[in-house]
Amino acid sequence: MIRLGNVLVSPGEGGVYGERTLDGYRVWDPYRSKLAALYTLGGGVELTPGMRVLYLGAANGTTVSHVADYVETVYAVEFAPRPMQDLLEVARRRKNIVPIMADANRPEEYAPFMEAVDLVYQDVAQPNQVEIAERNLVFLKPGGYLVLMLKTRSVDVRREPAEVLAEARAGLLRRLDVVDVRWLEPYHQDHAAIICTLRGSIY
Ligand SMILES: C[S@@+](CC[C@H](N)C(=O)[O-])C[C@H]1O[C@@H](n2cnc3c(N)ncnc32)[C@H](O)[C@@H]1O
C-alpha cells in the first residue's frame, strides 16, 4: 500500500467523496474507513493490480473507491437503495467497479454476475456476520483471503466484545485459517478485523 510519510493514500482520480489529495494521491482516512484503519495499524492484505475483490456492504462507495484504485475489479454488493445511488455514481466514474444491489445473505442471486475472487472483504454490521461470510466463500479461490470487519455490537450488544470476537473466530475456523486478528481502536470502537485464508478447494 502507498504511504506518503505516515499518510495512507491511493492512486486514483480524486474528488469521489470530498477526500483530500496529497501530491496527486487520494488520502485514505482511517477514521472514515475500517480498511484504512487496518492498514494504518500495520495489518491487512496487500492489494495488487491483478486482484479481483468481492466487497460486501459497499455503502456509498467510500472504501470501495480506494480498493478500486489498487486492484483489477471490485464486485460491490449493497442492499440499501439510498447508498446504492451514491455507489452507482462512484462506479460511473471508474471502469473496474461492478455495483450489485443484493442481499449478501443470498449469494445465489448475484452468482451469475460473479467470477472467482482473490479477496472477500465484508463490512455489513449484521447479527449473522460469520454466516454471511461463510455463504460467500463460494466465490473465493482456495488460498484466497477473507477480511471480515466484525462489529461486535451488531452481533450482541450485551456481551463483551472479546467474547463475541472469540465466538466469531471459532466459527470461521470451520472453513478457514485465521492469520491475524486486530481491534481497530482508536479509529473504530468495538470493531475487530479478522483476516483468514481459505483452506482448500470447496468443490
Ligand atoms: C458500515 S456500512 C459499510 C461502510 C463501507 N464498507 C465503507 O467503508 O465505505 C455497512 C453497509 O452494509 C450494508 N448492508 C448491511 N447488511 C447487508 C446485507 N445483508 N447485504 C448487503 N448489504 C448490507 C448496509 O446497508 C450499509 O450500507
TrEMBL record:
Which CDD domains does this chain map to? AdoMet_MTases
Record-listed E.C. numbers: 2.1.1.-
Top-tier EC class = transferase
Keywords carried by this UniProt record: Methyltransferase, RNA-binding, rRNA processing, Transferase, tRNA processing
Q: Which family does it belong to?
A: Belongs to the methyltransferase superfamily. Fibrillarin family.
User: What's its job?
Assistant: Involved in pre-rRNA and tRNA processing. Utilizes the methyl donor S-adenosyl-L-methionine to catalyze the site-specific 2'-hydroxyl methylation of ribose moieties in rRNA and tRNA. Site specificity is provided by a guide RNA that base pairs with the substrate. Methylation occurs at a characteristic distance from the sequence involved in base pairing with the guide RNA.
Q: In the record, what terms sit under GO molecular function?
A: methyltransferase activity; RNA binding
> Taxonomically, which superkingdom?
Archaea
Cited Pfam families? Fibrillarin
GO annotation, biological process:
methylation; rRNA processing; tRNA processing
Q: How does it assemble?
A: Interacts with nop5. Component of box C/D small ribonucleoprotein (sRNP) particles that contain rpl7ae, FlpA and nop5, plus a guide RNA.
Q: What is this protein called?
A: Fibrillarin-like rRNA/tRNA 2'-O-methyltransferase
What gene, per UniProt, encodes this protein? flpA
Q: Which NCBIfam families match?
A: PRK04266.1-2, PRK04266.1-4
- The protein's organism comes out as Methanoculleus palmolei
